[in-house]
Amino acid sequence: MGEVMDFYDKYRHKQIDFERQNLQDVSLIKIQESIKDVFDGFLEPVSSYMQTVVDMCIDYAVESFLLGASFSRLGYYGEEMTNAFQRSREPFKMLTDDLYDFWIFWYYIDNIKNEAIYKACESFLYYWWKEGFETALKRYRMRLH
Question: How far is CA 89 from CA 32, 41, 96, 107, in A?
Fold first, then answer.
């Protein structure tokens, strides 16, 4: 008699392997540079909590990268990147809202800067979503998955 197999565990192991393989292509230095580029004007008021803010931005960049990588399979089978992004719109919006809420937690600002921070969060996460999509798409095409 064989063992009873739990498909959730099997799925989770495959997902962990997929994430581990894709995270080999992420550069921490590149993430930190993009944080500095995108959030440069917003980092000075929270300079005393700089490491916490940077660490949280790194976490969100990695999550966005993995989200893009998980949707790259659609690109491998011929779907355009914009269509794949539209399919991932709901989890991407949740990531964006969470990162925005994190930024708002650290300091109180007026409505104009609120919108600027939201746009910065959205562009930052979209950049890393796109990086994950393109990187994993290359891996699929080279048959490294």
Answer: 25, 27, 10, 27
Contact of 42 with 105, CB cutoff 8 Å? no
User: Tokens 């000075």 map to which residue?
Assistant: 44
Distance between CA atoms of 46 and 23, rounded to whole angstroms?
29
Nearest-angstrom CA–CA distance, 56 and 79: 32
- Are 61 and 128 in contact by the 8 Å Cβ rule? The answer is yes
Cα 87 to Cα 16, 18, 46, 107, 132: the distances in Å are 22, 20, 35, 33, 15
pLDDT in tens, 39-65: 988 888 777 888 899 999 999 999 999
> pTM of this prediction?
0.88
Q: In terms of Cα–Cα distance, which of 132, 121, 141 is closest to 57?
A: 121
- Report d(CA 47, CA 21) in Å as an integer: 34
Under the banding of pLDDT at 50, 70 and 90, the label for residue 85 is very high
CA angle, 30 then 92 then 28, to 5°: 15
Residue range 24-51: average pLDDT?
89
